[in-house]
Amino acid sequence: MAIKNSEIRKAYLLDKYVIITPGRAKRPRDIKEQTVINRTGRCPFCPDQVEDYAKKHKDYIKDKIKSEDGKWRVMAVANAFPAVTLDNDKAYGTQEVIIESRHHSRELSSLDVRHVEWVLRMFARRTAAISKNENIDYILCFKNQGSKAGASVVHAHSQVFATKILPPEIHEELGLAQSYRVKHKVCAYCDIIKKEMPGERKIYEDKWVAALAPYASEYHYEAWIFAKRHLDNITQLNDQEFRAFAKVYKLILEKLNALDLSFNVFLHQVVSNRDQHFYMKIQPRDSVWAGVELGSGLVINSVAPEAAAEYYRE
Ligand SMILES: [Zn+2]
Ligand SMILES: [Zn+2]
Prior knowledge:
It is globular and about 60 Å long. Strands 3-4-5-7-6-11-12-10-9-8 form a ten-stranded antiparallel beta sheet, sandwiched between helices. The two termini are 15 Å apart. The model is unreliable at 29-37 (pLDDT under 50). Helix 2 crosses helix 5 (239-259). It is α+β, with helices and mostly antiparallel strands. Helix content is 29%, strand content 23%. Residues 43, 45-46, 104, 155 line the site of one zinc ion (ZN). The site of one zinc ion (ZN) has 5 residues, from loops.
């Protein structure tokens, strides 16, 4: 049963609150937004341009995943305009771009499951490579798609941002997860999966992954995908788990594509911390945060997660 009246809900762990206002919910087809980004000039992520740039810049190409024909399908390259670099003590870190396909205008959701899996495997390969640097404490893999999500290039790509600072919110969540384990003798996220899967916020479940619309969703159609095994980062996924993640990730992207929503994707991971539980957050950027959100920190979400999960399950 979907809720009828507004409800203030607290996030599972963080001290964050959301007001779910189903009375104001709009039907999916009513919230179509036009995401049109025009191509200007030459695309830096098209194969010929990448190779051109690599000839002039040493160490530009970081990694490639090739298919049977020997051509790369997913490529990791250095970010040409990084905010943090390994030669700057004052803003130490590294940034990379993962070019998700050779095709200029194909979105990730339109690629086959095997290809989506290559993208996830590239996240794992780059996380493994970058985490060898002991000065790096945090590796964020993310994707912005659509203009509202901050994407600046239309060619499908994700990014990796690694730094020596563990962001405060991750640090806080880490502490709360640790306290939860001490108190309940079980991982908070393993518990969330167990409690949510039989319920109406479940999006998808198989032997390896569990996807849900979080209880206190901050965004319309927010979706989280968990590894069912208790793992702290993407490098630990096995073949079946990679495949299962690719399958549900693609399903969610197709559903968001049908609504024409811009979105952000984040991998929630901390390398080598047994209190962490690896999951993927998909946050559509349909709602515009205004006075209440910016002034009070409380977020109003007019699409109840129960309704969002139902949309994904349809
Ligand atoms: Zn391109
Ligand atoms: Zn767990």
